[in-house]
Amino acid sequence: MVNTKQHSMYSYGSVDENGKKRTSQDFTRLARPFIDRAVNKIIKKNNPQKIILFGSYARGTPNFHSDVDLLVVLDEVKDQIDDVARILGTIDPAGIAIDVIVVDPKELERVKHDTGYVYYYALKEGVMLYER
After folding, report:
1. Is 101 helix (H, G, I), strand (E, B) or coil?
2. Which of 16, 17, 37, 100 is the most buried (most CB within 10 A)?
3. Is the pTM of this model over 0.85?
4. Residue 67 CA neighbour count, 13 Å, CB half
5. Exposed, middle or buried, 71 (CB in 10 Å: 0-12/13-18/19+)?
6. Distance of alpha carbon 65 from alpha carbon 80, whole angstroms
7. Residues 39-68: pLDDT tens digits?
C-alpha cells in the first residue's frame, strides 16, 4: 500500500498524471512543503541567524533537475564542511536535492558586495525564509 501523504519530490516527475509537462510554478508549489520542513528542522537543531533561499527556486524558475539552495547564517562557523554536514544531517530532504552553504555574519558583511562570492547572489536575488 502506498502512503499518498509522504511523497518524494521525484515521485512527481517532470510531467503530471495527464502527461502535461510541469511548469516552474508546479515545481515551486510541490517543493514548498519539503523546503518548509527542512527550514523548520534547521531552525530547531542549529539556531541560525538567517536562512535565505536563493537560486532557481528563489527566482521562480525551477525545473525537474533543480536543487534547493539555502544560505544559512550561523553565529559562528567553526568548520564549513562539518557545519554543512551537521545541518544536512538534521533534515530529511525526501527526495529533493538541497544545497546548503554556511557563513557567519562577519564574513557575510565582508564579502556581500563581491560578485566573486555566491553570497552576493544569495543576498541580491534570495528570499528570506527565516530571520532571528
Report:
1. strand
2. 100
3. no
4. 9
5. buried
6. 26
7. 999 999 999 999 999 999 999 888 878 899
Side-chain-side CA neighbours of 11 within 13 Å: the count stands at 9
Task: Output the CA–CA distances (angstroms, integers) from residue 67 to 58, 79, 110, in the order listed.
Answer: 11, 23, 27
Q: Which of 100, 106, 104, 102 is nearest to 88 (CA)?
A: 100
User: Is the torsion defined by CA of 98, 129, 58, 82 positive or negative?
Assistant: negative
Can you list the domains of the chain with their CATH numbers? 13-131 (3.30.460.10)
Quickly count helices (H) and strands (E) in the chain: 5, 4
| Grid coordinates given for 24 | 516552474
Query: 70-118 pLDDT, tens per residue?
Result: 999 999 999 999 999 999 998 876 667 899 999 999 999 999 999 999 9
Cell, residue 22: 510541469
2-28 pLDDT tens trace = 333 444 444 456 666 666 666 778 777
